[in-house]
Design goal:
Shape: globular
Strand order of the largest sheet: 6-5-4-1-7
Number of strands: 11
Distance between the termini: 76 Å
Strand content: 25-35%
Amino acid sequence: MRRMAWILAMVAALAACSSVKNVVVKDIPLEEQELILKEYKDRIVWTRAVLQDLGEGGSLPRDLKVRIVDVAMVYEGTVTVQTLQKKNRVRQGLNIERPLNKEKIDAALAELFFFEDPVLRHVSYIRKYGKKTARAIMEHEVFVGMPSDAALESWGTPAKKNTNSINDVVNEQWIYPSQVANKNRYIYIANGKVLRWDE
């Protein structure tokens, strides 16, 4: 009788398992993890966005020179940086949709950091956009008529974009969270140029 009960329990367990969907999220291969760490660990970078610690480590402002201490490749990914003077550490979430891969991690880090010295960046902006726009980018300002790609360099990647098209004019609203609670900043783009902004 015990044996029959055990067999029935096994059959029931197998039947339950057969109804479970096979969802496999492949982890990033070890060789790729080593390649990512070799490329980024101990690298000196400049913050492109305000970094907010996942714990209670506070935040770091834009344009701060920091050292990447670690890139964690679990869950949605994190990057840990350390300031050069006070040695403060901040662990920033990367919020990458799984499965993780090198391309997604590279893109997430490129949104958070500048990998080129500010002086060299300024020179490249002058070559690309001219002195007025280069200065505005370096000071994180925008102006009416500024090209949208320059505005993106100046304020960084928006948290959200709303787009519509009226009479062949493409309008975009870029939304940025503000450091003031429950307040956002906006850039309005029309046909690839800054139309106005609200801070």
